């Protein structure tokens, strides 16, 4: 996908997710979450090309300007939307699929204090995952596609696709209890 096509796709994604978006030009100029994603793409290119220090310095400048901290080494798919943005942190080994949505105050952080460069320490969010305001998703875990994490939940264990995760520590339920007969009424500790 070309540069301008990606910009148009990002603006369209923001407009489709935010009912307060009045125009594409407003989204383009005023959405800090979108600016953070665009900045991440630049820092990620620098990181992959081996310009690690400039990538980190630019990511810190973007953190100051947008209130969103995305490590340049993170792997992020298409159409990420960060609503309001302030306080979002995405760690170095985090992997986000396509169509992920994050609200303000979300942390995709690590639990390990080891300093091995090849260790995966941050979560993987598969396609379509939504993470509510203030939620913390910690460690090398995977949240299955089209799952939803409730506001202020603390998630430290894997979740299958189409899950609803709420509470501290988070418990997991099927997002639609009627979706499968076998899942009805079952609650798992996460």
Automatic annotation (TrEMBL):
<keyword id="KW-0963">Cytoplasm</keyword>
<keyword id="KW-0012">Acyltransferase</keyword>
<keyword id="KW-0028">Amino-acid biosynthesis</keyword>
<dbReference type="GO" id="GO:0009001">
    <property type="term" value="F:serine O-acetyltransferase activity"/>
</dbReference>
<protein>
    <recommendedName>
        <fullName>Serine acetyltransferase</fullName>
        <ecNumber>2.3.1.30</ecNumber>
    </recommendedName>
</protein>
<dbReference type="InterPro" id="IPR005881">
    <property type="entry name" value="Ser_O-AcTrfase"/>
</dbReference>
<dbReference type="InterPro" id="IPR042122">
    <property type="entry name" value="Ser_AcTrfase_N_sf"/>
</dbReference>
<comment type="similarity">
    <text>Belongs to the transferase hexapeptide repeat family.</text>
</comment>
<keyword id="KW-0808">Transferase</keyword>
<dbReference type="InterPro" id="IPR045304">
    <property type="entry name" value="LbH_SAT"/>
</dbReference>
<dbReference type="GO" id="GO:0005737">
    <property type="term" value="C:cytoplasm"/>
</dbReference>
<dbReference type="InterPro" id="IPR011004">
    <property type="entry name" value="Trimer_LpxA-like_sf"/>
</dbReference>
<keyword id="KW-0198">Cysteine biosynthesis</keyword>
<comment type="pathway">
    <text>Amino-acid biosynthesis; L-cysteine biosynthesis; L-cysteine from L-serine: step 1/2.</text>
</comment>
<keyword id="KW-0677">Repeat</keyword>
<dbReference type="GO" id="GO:0006535">
    <property type="term" value="P:cysteine biosynthetic process from serine"/>
</dbReference>
<dbReference type="Pfam" id="PF00132">
    <property type="entry name" value="Hexapep"/>
</dbReference>
<dbReference type="InterPro" id="IPR001451">
    <property type="entry name" value="Hexapep"/>
</dbReference>
<dbReference type="InterPro" id="IPR053376">
    <property type="entry name" value="Serine_acetyltransferase"/>
</dbReference>
């Amino acid at each position: 996908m070309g540069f301008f096509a990606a910009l148009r796709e990002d603006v369209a994604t923001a407009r489709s997710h935010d009912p307060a978006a009045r125009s594409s030009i407003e989204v383009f100029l005023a959405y800090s979450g979108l600016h953070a994603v665009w900045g991440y793409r630049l820092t990620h290119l620098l990181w992959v090309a081996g310009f690690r220090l400039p990538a980190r310095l630019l990511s810190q400048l973007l953190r100051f300007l947008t209130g969103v901290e995305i490590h340049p080494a993170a792997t992020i798919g298409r159409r990420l939307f960060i609503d309001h943005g302030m306080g979002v942190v995405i760690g170095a080994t985090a992997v986000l699929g396509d169509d992920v949505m994050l609200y303000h105050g979300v942390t995709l952080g690590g639990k390990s204090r080891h300093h091995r460069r090849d260790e995966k320490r941050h979560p993987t969010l598969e396609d379509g995952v939504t993470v509510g305001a203030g939620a913390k998703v910690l460690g090398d875990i995977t949240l299955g596609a089209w799952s939803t994490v409730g506001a202020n939940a603390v998630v430290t264990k894997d979740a299958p696709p189409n899950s609803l995760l709420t509470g501290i520590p988070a418990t997991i339920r099927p997002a639609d209890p009627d979706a499968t007969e076998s899942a009805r009424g079952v609650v798992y500790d996460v």
